[in-house]
Amino acid sequence: MGSRSTLAGLEVPNPAAIQDYCSSISIGEPPTYIIWRIHKHLPHILELLEFCANKEFPKVGLQGLRIIFREALSPLIFLCKNEVFCGIENAYPYLLYALTVSGIANLLRLRTIASYASGSVIQPDDLLDYGLGVLRPITSAAATPSGCLVIGRNDGSLLCYQLATVIPSYPGFRQELRDDPGIGSLWGLMSRGRVSAVQDLVISMVHGKTLVFVLHTDGILRVWDFIS
């Protein structure tokens, strides 16, 4: 796969990266499939492949995109349909969330993979990066097509960032999901003085409500009504 898009200069690979990371997602109908990979020897580079269910599978090879970041990436990578930037969905059909190992959250709006020419540079207007500034390790994360990133930490806490809709210096950009009334409403559990680390979390629409399902390492499952 050749280099297709440059976001930043090359960095020395992170020696702590000991394995490859890879996942895929289907978007739209008929579905478009996107596969992403982080190679253990190039942890600052994200590789993307795209192919469509209604088109013949290439016999020679798939066109790919390599995005080069300044820092090594964590495996917390999310791709989804773009539901934020109204009026340009056709030009930028995808949103890409990429978290670095140092706690930088990157939000990129992407065109179709095949539309990037060799040596392309992602424009500043297509990228938002924000230092999360978290003092505790991030153990899990999830994101929405509307530009919201939720992270879980090793102390059991949850933080929500409105990356695409609120300016970082404005109120409401960063909020913590708590047991008390506010942005997050806890379902089915009494408030507890202490919870274990977040093991995994998922954001899902259920009967018109945006719910955050949070699994902790002690086996406790908490469900948050994201809107209330």
UniProtKB/TrEMBL annotation:
Is the keyword Nucleus in the record?
Answer: yes
Where is this protein localized, as stated in its record? Answer: Nucleus
List, alphabetically, the PANTHER family matched.
NUCLEAR PORE COMPLEX PROTEIN NUP160
Looking at the record, the residues that make up the Nucleoporin Nup120/160 beta-propeller domain are: 33-226
State the organism of origin.
Rubus argutus (Southern blackberry)
What name does the UniProt record give this protein?
A: Nucleoporin Nup120/160 beta-propeller domain-containing protein
Keywords of this entry = Nucleus, Transport
A Pfam family matched in the record: Beta-prop_Nup120_160
Instruction: List the record's Gene Ontology CC terms alphabetically.
Output: nuclear pore
Domain of life of the native organism? Eukaryota
